[in-house]
Amino acid sequence: MRITQLRDFLAVVDAGSIRGAARALEVTQPAITRSIRQLEAELQAKLLERSGRGVLPTANGKAFLLRARAVYLEMQRMREEQAQLAGSSPGSVAFGASPQAMIHLVPQALEQFRRQHPQADVRIVDGLAHVLLPQLRAGSLDFVIGSRPQDKLDARFTYQPLFTNQIVVGARRGHALRHAKSLAELTDAQWVIFTPSGWAGAVIPEIFVKNGLQPPKSVVRSDSYVAFLSILAATEMVAPLSRMLLQQPLARSFFEEFKLKERLPEFSIGLFRLADSPATPVATDLAAAMRSAARRLTFKRQ
What we know:
By secondary structure, the protein is of the alpha/beta class. It is built from twelve helices and eleven strands. Helix 1 (3-15) crosses helix 2, helix 1 packs across helix 4 and helix 6 packs across helix 12. The model has no long low-confidence stretch (mean pLDDT 88).
């Protein structure tokens, strides 16, 4: 099995056609067809089939796809690592980060990283861990910065805590309920909550129930963090926010924290890596910059 066969197979799956794969790889269609047939002959399995929607993987092809993509990306990473070590390539790194990490860590870490690698190609993917970890497992991301899932962590990942953040309740500055002292005073309030697609967490109403209160009846859920903050800044809604967000000068100009008697939960933000896949030098340096930014953030809060 050759790496070019994996490349061709993945290109056909991604393009949905032999023609599209040939165009993307700048090779002839017969060359792609021959490569796929040789791969299928070696595996003794049919991997692709034509349908009304184009060329799709068979059941065997779907199973092979997951491993093929992981192997191909790992081979690419090996080549890139050698090029970085030889000094012939500035390198590239792709990582995912949650909104909290984007706000508190990524700008400072990139500033440090750029001094080391001014020409490295950097790709950032926004999202929560439950969305980003499958991409890390598939090999398309070098690491992920986000909250650790409540369930047991997959053994294929390692997790290093970077900082903790506390949930608070807040709203736009000058809100009519800004002097509220307890959750009980907010049961009739209108709430907006950041709940990304696929996220099973339920900070509200869970916090109310744990404190023996009826949960709010008026709740708007947003899977966009930008929309969530925009709605909060422009309406009479209240929301669960992170305390560290409200420590940012820009955020303080729009929002203020309610000083409630209840202490709301804390959550941890950390660095996820693949347990059995060593990082390239460039990815290692960017991960180190993330840890350094986290230490400065923790020191600043003390």
